Amino acid sequence: MQIIECIEKEHGGAILEILNHTIINSTALFAYHPRSPENMRSWFQTKKDNNYPVIGAVDTDGTLVGFASYGSFRQWPAYKYTVEHSIYIHPAHRRRTIGDKLLKQVINRAEQQDYHVLIGAIESTNQASIRLHEKNGLACCGTIKEVGFKFGTWLNLSFYQLVLTSPASPVDG
Known about the structure:
CATH superfamily: Gcn5-related N-acetyltransferase (GNAT)
Order of helices and strands: EHHEEEHEHEE
Strand content: 25-35%
Number of strands: 7
Structural class: alpha+beta
Strand order of the largest sheet: 1-2-3-4-5-7-6
CATH class: Alpha Beta
CATH topology: Aminopeptidase
CATH architecture: 3-Layer(aba) Sandwich
Mean pLDDT: 95
Low-confidence stretches: none
Number of helices: 4
Distance between the termini: 41 Å
Radius of gyration: 16 Å
Number of domains: 1
Largest sheet: 7 strands, mixed
């Protein structure tokens, strides 16, 4: 397995497939409807415009088996040092440490880009994701009860946080 920078033209279809499988089959994403190729183009453009990485994991055949990224946590200016990340693995490749490798890359990138806090929002029954985050130093900092409704059930959303050592000299404004 190799870690790469994802490019829309090369990896957009595979990312879309992974996301749509997640939407249709799990509560990891609180979306009801699959995303379109147009959604992917907009998503990649937002990542590019804001200098947010899209990090991929490819197997020996060059097939994308997972990806990770981050984006703004909230739009208010005082949140400028905080990002929220996402990690998704193709279902045929789960439980192979791919998520661990991608999360380590996300943490490194966030530090390199002078972010201070990394947030992961995890549906509270997703034990695999919770273990992954805790293994990498993220701690639960709160759960919002029954904030989502999908597949006929109320969903709780737990927030996991890692405080980074960067930036060296944060500024207001």
